[in-house]
Amino acid sequence: MEKHLKPYQYYSDLYDKYTVERCRNLEKIDNDIKLPEDKITKEKQQHFKKAFSKLHMYFETGEDYLGKSKRINEWMERDKKYDELYEQAKAPENITCLSCGRLMFVESKHLDFANNDKRDRVMFFYDCPLKHKPMRVFYDDGEEYRVKPHICPKCSSSFSEESKKEKDIIYITYTCSKCGFIEKTDLDLTIKEEKIDLDFIKDRNRFCLSEADGQKYMEAKVNIENLSKIMDKYKEKEKNKNLYDKVAKLKKLKIIELEKLLTPILESANYVKLQFQTPQVSKDVFVPFIVYDSKSERSEYDSKHNLQKLLKTKLEDTNWRLMSDGVNYRLGMLEWRLRAYEREEDLIKLIEDIK
Ligand SMILES: [Zn+2]
Ligand SMILES: [Zn+2]
What we know:
Elements: H1 8-32, H2 42-88, E1 105-112, E2 121-127, E3 136-139, E4 144-145, E5 159-166, E6 169-176, E7 182-188, H3 200-207, H4 211-249, H5 255-268, E8 271-276, E9 280-281, E10 285-293, H6 300-315, E11 320-322, E12 328-330, E13 333-340, H7 344-354
Antiparallel strand pairs: 1-2, 2-3, 3-4, 5-6, 6-7, 8-10, 9-10, 10-13, 11-13, 12-13
Helix pairs in contact: 1-2, 1-3, 4-7
Bound molecules: zinc ion (2 copies).
């Protein structure tokens, strides 16, 4: 049997053939695109189609060039595996003729490509030393391939078979041994000649890039990719620019300034005698404060809730936030903590939270 693995050039030519075929089809599709006729003249349409197709084919042929060696490697790997499988498969032993019981011998072997859930396997054809038919067929894993007997459709008896070869055609005649029914078939072994493709060389030159043109395409592609990366970075900066602008607009208040800002606001809402306590300074700065609710009818819940709402809105455009936990309420006295944001990344997070 002919080896599966062939020289590199075989695959290279095959790949080019596929490329030519594929690109011819694509060009045809491009040419068949329907453009709205009333909008532009026929002449302009042709011009547009040509320009589009040229650009389209530039990328298609370039990509085919780039994919070529990988695809050829895959093909060669596959065929190498077929050859290994074919060489290494062991024929099942002790196969005997079902007519005379004699030990059969391997007449030939063939690769059977994976179908259904089976792997690729090797089929062994066994012949009887006395030439009893039919031959027996086994896979390398021991499974028998059972040939269905060809029987007479009229009376279900077995056929006798006669064949003669004329030129490259085998004519087979089946005759029923019981009722004489005759069935004829033939096997055409003529090798179909490949159609002569006079345009192939011209199209191969158009579609299968030379080494030099392929390299040029690759460089152009890298440039386009780099350009798009630069564009992405630029867009990212633009997006962040808004963020940084907003951070810049935040009022960064010192502790005293904060106290000055809040005192009148709180008083107008009947929270009085605001006192800042000693700041707790670690990685971040927390400032505990005490304030008194002067509205006697206000409940504990309302007192806490209103203060929280008020501070939330009033601090929004500053770098300070009220802590969500740790509020103490005793006899109209509220004890809470404020937190300062100083680092740029923290300030950006603040802005993003507002959004
Ligand atoms: Zn036999
Ligand atoms: Zn019959």
